[in-house]
Specification:
- The complex is a heterodimer of chains A (712) and B (294).
- Chain A has 5 domains: 89 residues, 2-Layer Sandwich (Alpha-Beta Plaits); 292 residues, Peptidase S8/S53 domain (Rossmann fold), CATH 3.40.50; 83 residues, Immunoglobulins (Immunoglobulin-like), CATH 2.60.40; 93 residues, Sandwich (Immunoglobulin-like); 83 residues, Macroglobulin (MG2) domain (Immunoglobulin-like).
- Chain A is 14% helix and 36% strand.
- In chain A, strands 6, 7, 8, 9, 10, 12, 13, 14, 17 and 18 form a 10-stranded mixed sheet that branches. In chain A, strands 37-43-42-39-40 form a 5-stranded mixed sheet, with no helix packed on it. In chain A, strands 2-3-1-4 form a 4-stranded antiparallel sheet.
- In chain A, β17 and β18 form a beta hairpin.
- In chain A, α5 packs parallel to α10, α6 runs parallel beside α8 and α10 packs across α11.
- Chain B has 294 residues and is mostly beta strands.
- Chain B has 2 helices and 16 strands.
- Chain B has a 14-stranded antiparallel β-barrel with strand order 2-3-4-5-6-7-8-10-11-12-13-14-15-16.
- Chain B starts with a helix and ends with a strand.
- At the A-B interface, β39, β40, β41, β42 and β43 of A face α1, β1 and β9 of B.
- β41 of chain A pairs parallel with β1 of chain B, so a sheet runs across the interface.
Chain lengths: 712, 294
């Protein structure tokens, strides 16, 4: 970047440490390739520019109406000339060849700092948010009657403003082109202007921050066009001159949504070399002078230098977008720390990833999907620090309206903006708080009011407790909410509303207490307590025994509704899993809380049902399924171990069957002859029998079958 | 037509019938009530009040009235061959302590056959103490440990106790007792043992070289079953013994009904006895034993 030094006859001292000369002389360069700014030793001794090879044109850099000449002269701005060169001659050497040149410098090439639009975000939430996304708290200022005044002027140094836009036309005081390409309605400039002072209360479009009350008030805008586009190419204007012009023509706030870029080769990324070079860069002297001129002369009489009687502020506030390259350096900030650099936050109120940052960025505002005016009477959204900065400019205009007057200075204005901001966001300073800035230094604070609903509850372990906390501040100060309490979480759901949550599944049974405190800007508090009891969890229980199932032929189905068998003492509906160990024998068809078993072939299968609650407590039950084919001899259900009922099946046709069931000691439990078959099993109730080994003898059709069983 | 209708009705009745109840089996550890003494087996398990046999297998209350000092015995039973067939091994001993006291102990192991891959086992250990209150009365107290392997994964175990009172006068003796009062557990579930109020009476009469004894027992089980058993024993010269009896068990009783026949040879303190159960599900159950007393 550029290192400034005095220019001598013997040496061209305009040196560029980085990037390389090839880059500088090539298509991509941080400097305007055909512009050289020179400072004369004596403004009265203007060289014959035609003597300098390659000079296409030359004119004074800072010009204005004659009544401003003295002021310009006092600042030495009348000694500056802008030379446009043909490009064949190296600018530095050419400049130092002429007598009377005290200094020469290249001009850095800035660019608007806008990111591609994101049309999916809601409109103007940066002003009045209905969600958890923070806004700049400007509505209370409007309610108090501060919405913009027509004697307060904000200069938009940017692309041109659409002078025909119905939401801007009545607030556009004057437009001046500094690009020599004629006034144009630029998207970027129109968007920036709308944020500051789109007409408010006219029933159309958007509300500018200082757009008035609908009665013809609202701050006025000066459009200093320093960017234009011709034949597909961007044209850069005399931004130094624009700043001086703005000061001379009544602007108290200079809104600059542009920055010097580190991406000098224009490849869309900042290399380490570019970053290192950028971090050593400084602004041109001419520009430093222009910044000082605005800062000191805005709102002042050009002859006397004193605050004009009709000006609410002596001097001007410079507001800049911090830049969108995610860097921690800005040469303007390094060389002119009085300017206010604005960072951008995202939709969640966090530092936007693209926002330049550092201790020089002392204030921030929403910079993602900011809704504003567009050329041709339209509206749209845009992202970037470009659209955070005009929010600060707009609020600054309201504060001038509220507090401006004789002796009011940009320093006081800056102190209000910074002192009244909400807590810092990352490395981009405090979050813009219009009402907070208005209330800055107030001594009549009233504490906030916090309401909680509910503030106590008893929940089951699987339930989640939710409470709503509403905030109200009688002074309309911004209020923060804090929560102290194990296991509780806090989430902002709306500008003045939070949700407090305790998930029973994540804590043990017991009682939990939380303290919720609302604190306003001045430290006044209100607090409430929450007491929650989480009941112990209980595993699902079996309501009805799952008895053995007998399926007699292929395709036969047995249906089950799991909620008939299982319940949960805590009132929740368990999750169920059902498995069959021999799917080739029995097909399992599952449908929500019910399932069916369908016989596929002869055999025996075990069905296992697991009921599990939300905390993982479970109950597992198994029961057998017997698929009984034709030609059965003797089978029993459930098989070897019997808990209650014993089914005895014989052949397919019911025949007289002598059945004897005895204990291991020989005691007879059952001895009878009945008609028994596969379709008509004998069912014996052994539920009252004490645990014992059993011996079963079944005789039919001249054959006797025996089986050892166990009653448990 | 009527037959088919009857079958159809029976089919419908069976299909729609509820589960049928079974009788008995309300108490656990019924095997603890099996009599291991081959002599008493020949009497159809009667003989609680008998004083004619050695006391090793008998009631502990009979030990103070034993003429000798010590009696030891071993028996083997082939149990219930038509049902869950098992081999039972029992070792018993009893002895007098002084003139008035007695002690007896026994251990029985039952192993069922016919199971593939494993052998169900039932075990019973008994220890008793007794005291003669007078020449006519003695009392005894005993404890039992019982365990049963129901399956390789399921084991039932428990404790029970006996209280007994024995009266003798001349050839007549009587018994009153509370038998095997206790409980057994399987996991966290508890079941009552097969406990009963036991009554017994015996009368022996000698005529020359011959002796005849009749025994009658009754058990009233707390679970509702009733067992009545009676037996007759004839002996010649106290050398050869012939026995017979009948055991009746109600529907809820832990043991079924059966008849019995027994044979014994005693000589010089050595006793060889055998018995077979006849009829009912325990038919052809065989018990043999050897004992020695001095």
């Amino acid at each position: 970047m550029l290192i400034l030094a005095a220019c001598s006859k013997q040496a061209a001292v305009v040196s560029v440490p980085a990037p390389s000369a090839e880059v500088l002389s090539g298509e991509f360069s941080p400097y305007e390739a055909d512009v050289l700014l020179v400072q004369l030793e004596d403004p009265a001794q203007v060289p014959d520019w035609s003597q300098l090879p390659g000079v296409v044109s030359a004119r004074r850099l800072f010009t204005d109406e004659p009544r401003f000449e003295k002021a310009l002269h006092d600042f030495g701005l009348d000694r500056w000339y802008k030379l446009r060169l043909s490009g064949d001659m190296p600018a530095t050497k050419a400049a130092c060849d002429l007598p009377g040149i005290a200094y020469a410098e290249r001009r850095l090439r800035p660019a608007p700092v806008a990111l591609p639009n994101d049309p999916d975000l809601s409109r103007q939430t940066y002003l009045v948010s209905s969600s958890a996304a923070p806004d700049i708290h400007v509505a209370p200022l409007w309610e108090q009657g501060f919405s913009g005044r027509s004697d307060i002027i904000v200069a938009i140094l940017d692309g041109g403003i659409d002078a025909t836009h119905p939401d801007l036309a009545s607030h556009l005081l004057a437009s001046e082109d500094f690009t020599e390409e004629g006034l144009q309605a630029d998207v970027h400039g129109t968007q920036v202007a709308g944020i500051v002072s789109a007409v408010r209360g006219n029933g159309i479009g958007i509300s500018g921050i200082a757009g008035g009350s609908g009665s013809g008030d609202g701050v006025r805008l000066l459009s200093a066009q320093i960017f234009s586009r011709k034949e597909g190419k961007d044209r850069l204007g005399d931004y130094e001159a624009a700043l001086v012009w703005a000061a001379n023509h009544g602007a108290l706030i200079a809104q600059n949504s542009w920055a010097f870029k580190a991406d000098t080769d224009g490849d869309g990324s900042v290399s380490e070399q570019e970053k290192a070079s950028f971090s050593r860069s400084h602004i041109p002297l001419s520009y430093q002078l222009a910044l000082s001129y605005f800062s000191q002369k805005a709102g002042c009489d050009p002859e006397t230098g004193e605050q004009r009687a009709d000006s609410p502020m002596k001097g001007g506030l410079l507001v800049f977008a911090s830049g969108n390259e995610g860097l921690d350096y800005n040469p303007v900030a390094a060389d002119f720390p009085d300017a206010l650099f604005v960072g951008a936050t995202d939709a969640e109120g966090r530092q936007a990833a693209f926002s330049n940052h550092g201790d020089w960025v002392r204030i921030c505002a929403p910079g993602v999907a900011v809704y504003s005016t567009m050329p041709d009477g339209g509206y749209g959204r845009a992202s970037g620090t470009s659209f955070a900065a005009p929010q600060v400019s707009g609020v600054a205009a309201l504060l001038v309206e509220a507090f401006g007057g004789p002796g009011f200075t940009p320093g006081q204005l800056r102190a209000r903006l910074l002192g009244g901001a909400a807590p810092a966001v990352g490395e981009i300073g405090g979050f813009l708080d219009a009402m907070g800035s208005c209330r800055y230094g107030a001594t009549d604070n009233r504490p906030p009011m916090l309401s909680l609903s509910p503030d106590a509850a008893t929940i089951h372990a699987h339930e989640t407790f939710r409470a709503q906390a509403d905030l109200l501040d009688p002074d309309q100060d911004a209020v923060d909410l804090s929560l102290e309490g194990e296991a509780f979480s806090l989430r902002k759901t709306a500008p003045d509303r939070y949700e407090i949550v305790l998930d029973g599944k994540t804590v043990r049974a017991g009682t939990y207490h939380a303290e919720v405190t609302a604190t306003d800007r001045f430290g006044a508090t209100d607090h409430r307590g929450i007491d929650i009891t989480v009941l112990p969890n209980h595993a699902p229980v079996l309501e009805k025994r799952m008895n053995p199932v007998l399926l007699r032929k292929t395709g036969e189905r047995a249906n089950f509704l799991l909620t008939d068998y299982f319940s949960d003492p805590d009132g929740e509906v368990p999750d169920f899993s059902v498995t069959v160990d021999h799917p080739e024998t029995v097909f399992l068809s599952r449908n929500g809380a019910s399932f069916s078993l369908i016989m596929l072939q002869e055999g025996r299968a075990e069905v296992t049902v697991t009921a599990r609650d939300a905390l993982g407590a479970s109950l597992q039950v198994s029961f057998p399924v017997y698929a009984a084919p034709e030609g059965l001899t003797l089978e029993t259900l459930p098989g070897y171990k019997v808990y209650s009922d014993l089914l005895i099946l014989t052949g397919t046709d019911p025949v007289p069957t002598h059945i004897v069931l005895q204990t291991s000691t020989g005691a007879i439990l059952y001895d009878d002859t009945v008609l028994c078959g596969a379709e008509t099993p004998l069912r014996l109730d052994l539920s009252l029998i004490a645990p014992v080994r059993l011996f079963l003898s079944v005789s039919y059709d001249g054959r006797t079958y025996t089986k050892n069983l166990l009653k448990l | 037509m009527r037959r088919k209708a009857l079958i159809l009705l029976l089919l419908l009745a069976a299909f729609g019938a509820k589960a049928q109840e079974v009788s008995g089996g309300l108490e656990a550890m019924g095997f603890g009530r099996i009599v291991r003494d081959p002599a008493r087996a020949g009497l159809a398990f009667a003989g609680l009040a008998s004083l004619s046999q050695g006391p090793a297998f008998g009631s502990v209350a009979a030990v103070p009235f034993y003429d000798g000092t010590f009696d030891g015995a071993f028996s083997y039973s082939r149990w219930n061959p038509s049902g869950e067939c098992g081999n039972h091994f029992t070792l018993a001993a009893a002895g007098r302590l002084g003139k008035r006291y007695g002690i007896s102990a026994s251990a029985a192991l039952q192993r069922a056959v016919g199971y593939e891959g494993w052998t169900p086992t039932d075990f019973q250990a008994r220890l008793g103490l007794s005291m003669a209150l007078s020449e006519l009365f003695s009392v005894g107290i005993g404890g039992h440990y019982l365990s049963s392997t129901l399956s390789p994964e399921d084991h039932l175990s428990g404790f029970a106790m006996d209280l007994s009172l024995l009266l003798r006068k001349g050839g007549f003796s009587a018994f009153l007792g509370l038998s095997q009062l206790g409980s057994a557990s399987l996991g966290d579930k508890v079941y009552p043992t097969a406990a009963s109020v036991s009554l017994g009476a015996a009368y022996a009469h000698c005529f020359g070289e011959h002796r005849l004894e009749a025994d009658l027992d009754a058990d009233f089980y707390l679970g509702g079953g009733v067992i009545l058993s009676g037996g007759v024993q004839y002996s010649w010269r106290e050398f050869l013994f012939l026995r017979g009896g009948y055991h009746w068990g109600s529907a809820k009783a832990v043991l079924p009904s059966f008849a019995s026949a027994g044979l014994g040879v005693h000589w010089n303190g050595i006793r060889l006895d055998a018995a077979v159960l006849l009829g009912g599900p325990l038919s052809r159950s065989l018990t043999v034993g050897i004992a020695y007393g001095f």
